[in-house]
Structures are given as C-alpha cells and as structure tokens.
Amino acid sequence: xxxxxxxxxxxxxxxxxxxxxxxxxxxxxxxxxxxxxxxxxxxxxxxxxxxxxxxxxxxxxxxxxxxxxxxxxxxxxxxxxxxxxxxxxxxxxxxxxxxxxxxxxxxxxxxxxxxxxxxxxxxxxxxxxxxxxxxxxxxxxxxxxxxxxxxxxxxxxxxxxxxxxxxxxxxxxxxxxxxxxxxxxxxxxxxxxxxxxxxxxxxxxxxxxxxxxxxxxxxxxxxxxxxxxxxxxxxxxxxxxxxxxxxxxxxxxxxxxxxxxxxxxxxxxxxxxxxxxxxxxxxxxxxxxxxxxxxxxxxxxxxxxxxxxxxxxxxx
Amino acid sequence: xxxxxxxxxxxxxxxxxxxxxxxxxxxxxxxxxxxxxxxxxxxxxxxxxxxxxxxxxxxxxxxxxxxxxxxxxxxxxxxxxxxxxxxxxxxxxxxxxxxxxxxxxxxxxxxxxxxxxxxxxxxxxxxxxxxxxxxxxxxxxxxxxxxxxxxxxxxxxxxxxxxxxxxxxxxxxxxxxxxxxxxxxxxxxxxxxxxxxxxxxxxxxxxxxxxxxxxxxxxxxxxxxxxxxxxxxxxxxxxxxxxxxxxxxxxxxxx
Lengths: 316, 255
Hints:
Radius of gyration of chain A: 23 Å
Strand content of chain B: under 5%
Number of strands of chain A: 14
Shape of chain B: globular
Largest interface: A-B, 28 and 24 residues
Distance between the termini of chain B: 15 Å
Largest sheet of chain A: 6 strands, mixed
Oligomer: heterodimer
Strand order of the largest sheet of chain A: 6-7-8-3-9-10
Helix content of chain A: 25-40%
Order of helices and strands of chain B: HEEHHHHHHHHH
Structural class of chain A: alpha/beta
Distance between the termini of chain A: 41 Å
Number of domains of chain B: 1
Number of helices of chain A: 11
Largest sheet of chain B: 2 strands, antiparallel
Helix content of chain B: over 70%
Order of helices and strands of chain A: EEEHEEHEHHHEHEHEEHEHEEHEH
Structural class of chain B: mainly alpha
C-alpha cells in the first residue's frame, strides 16, 4: 500500500437510527503510522464510528475506506488486517490465557503451530508470559486489558483500534498499557483510539478529534488544539461564581483582569480565566485587594478544550 | 444476506469443540448415565405392567424412540442456553465478528456444533441400548448419520428462538411449549395410531416424530418406503429454515 495514502478515509460518514443520527456526516483521515484519537462525551458517536471502521456496523451513508478498501465491499479483507480492542473485554472464560490467543489466531487461519508461537511471543510482549496457563478469571483488570491488546495483535495488524483501552485501570496498569502502545507505534502500527482521559489522548495521540452529538467539533494535534481554543494558561478562582457570596466580586475580578483575559467561563462556585499571562493576571487581581478564596494558575490542558467545546452538562 | 463462509463456520465449530474437549470425560459419563436411568425406570417399572406394545417388548419400543429424543436434547440445549450464554454473557460473538469471521459464520458454526453434540448424545445412548441387547439390526450404524441430520434440524429451530428471545428466562418457555409436548406426543412412549386421527396428523407436523420413526426402523431393521418421507420431511424443513436464524441473528447483533 502507498504509504502516503491515508489508512482510513471517512467522508460524510453517517449512521442513523430512525430519526437519530448517532454519527452525523463526519469526515476525517488517519495517516499511516500515526496515533489518532477520538474524544467526546458519552453518546458523542465515538464507538459507533469505531464499529464502522472495524466493519461490524454498516454505515447508513457516506464513504469509508480502510486500508484502501471500501468497508461495504471488503469487510472480511479489512478485518483480516486490523486488530480490535473493544470497549468490553470479550475474552473466553472457558479457555486459558494462552488458549485465548491460540483460538483467536485460528480465526485468522493461522495453523496451530504458528498460533502457539505467536501466542507465546505476544504474552511476553504484554508481560503475561508467566500467566499463560491461568484462567481469565484469575487475571486482574489490567491484565485482562493487556490480554485484549495481545489478542488484537494476533494477526500482526497494520492498524490497531482501541475503544477506551484503559478505562477502569489503576495508574500503574494504565502506564504499562501506554508504554506498550507507544512501543507498538514505534514499530509502525497505526492506532486509532477513543478515550475519556485527556491525559491519555495527550500522552499517546499525534492528532485528535473531539466529537459531540455525532459531529466533529474540533480536530488537530493536542497541543495545537489547546493553543487555538483556550490559550496557554488558566487561572482558576474558587469561591467566585454565579451563586453565593462570591458573586459580587465576579464583576470586579473580570474588570481587573481586563485585556489579559482572553476568555472566561463562569460556573456556580468557580471562575476560569484563559490567558497567556497568568502571573500578570493574578498580580492585577491581588493589587485590587479582591477577596479571592483560592486562586490557582496552571497550564491549559486538553480537558479545558474538551469542556469548552462540549459543555459541562452531564451526558448520560 | 445469509451468505456464510464454510471455512469460517468450521473455525467457530472448532472453537466450541476445543472448549468441549476440556469437559469431555465428565459430560460423556453423564451421557451414559441418563439412558441407563431411563431404561431402568421404563423397563423395570412400566415394563412390569406393559409387556408388549406394537408387537415389541415395551423396553425395546421405548428405547428405540428415546434415543432420538436424547439427540434432540443435545442439539436443543447447545443452541439455546449455551449459545445464549456465549452470545450475551460471554460476548464471544462480539469478539469473533472483529476477526475475518462474520455473524453468519458464527451462527452456522454454532448450528454445526449443536448437530455434533446431538450425534455425541444420541450415539452414547445408542451404545448403551446396544449393550442391553435392544438393537436388532446393523442398520443401527446409520443412526448417527440420522442424528447429524436431525441435529441440524433441531439446532436451526433452536437458534431461531435464541436469535429473538428477550432473555435467558424464555428458554424454559421454549422447552415447555415446544420440546416437552413433542417429547410426549411423537410416538416415543406409545404408538400414535391408537389415538384419534387428528393427534397423529398433528404429530406428523412435529419434527421429532419423523426422527423417532426412523431411529426405530433402523434399530429394529424394519425400514419401509414410507420412511423415506420422514427423511425428506426433515431435509426439507431444515433447508427451508436454515437462512432464518442467520438473518435474525444479523438483525440482533448488527445494529
């Protein structure tokens, strides 16, 4: 395959359920060798988009090419060359850790001998070599997730699709999973992932899209998105908000900040001010002798972009 | 679309066979236990009151029919409870359809496995009644082939129900409304020709009656031309229904 052509090309991709569009005309391209992230609140359409890419859901309309093949005509050929880590663990509880990989290898038509060799090699890669004979139930959550990753690697895929690879894992397990994914990326495996964790997207992804209500709200490199949407720094002022005693102070704080505030968000009990000069802004507020319960200056993160673009309403 | 890949179906069948291998010795032991209990109960219990039926010792009459119901249960339990657990609780189907296999292959593989279990269960029973001297003809060697066909038939029917059932609790409904009446009124325990004509007409419409006719004829060495119709009936129904569970399961899993 031509390395300069995108591995995934989606154009006006749509999935409808009756009147509801779960994915509403999204277009994106994933390049060879990159890690591409989908962020978005629950119900934004991330998983539906993934399922269309790994060919278990047919699109309602629009174009979708994976590895230069149309998903509508070449599902089996595409699936033979990609690895999928679904949101739920789908391991066989009746089988041992090693057998899980061997049986999966058979689905890709690998002979038993080769299936066994590949199982051993992948178990070593995800640091589960000493658990080969255990049943899946004996594994911790992090181990099961790593086994899912190992299983996705069985066909030596050109592309790996990971739907929330580290949700529910403890920090150690998450770090180890990230390390393995970065290691794979160095070997040239293209990755597409969805996540709720901004630090995960920042740590792994070259480019991300933020989805909301079936559409793409923003696209770009994580750092560039932060710069473009929220600037460099954030001053967070606790106790000043739309409710309570801080309310009186709100107007005066914003006035003091003046042109140093590029944008701001008022919440019930705190205020966020986006700025490129946080020190200067804090200095001005102190000069005015304003009664601020707690002020923090921090770097702007992807989470700020995310919340700014998708709002703070709970999505369930 | 109901096109499946024979290779894909075989690979899913192989997965089930691989898992079954673990529990093989135990489950086979139970397969032998069940017919022995039936034979003791029917032969010693009822057989003490009923000496002959349709010109046969009662135990011979019952055993040559029961062998078919054992095969039926093998396919039915596999394609109802076991298949549902794999699909819904274990999410095995969700895993498999991310590989080159499709939903169609999974469904056909499951049906083939149901038929395979049917042959195991039925043949275990057949061996036991052969040891007890009930089988009278070498034509009985064809009975496992019969169970492959009837196993496919019962697996297809069970998979149709599995594809539409709202929850695992509804399988008891399937057993109570479909399987148990069939078990009772397919000529296993008493000949149907003694009953009002409409009963035997109704029985002719049930799948099990044809399997019982054939298994008894083969075990006793008394096949006649009319038994060909039983075979044709089974093949026709199986072929006609075969695409249905595939289409329904696609609708259930691909949303």
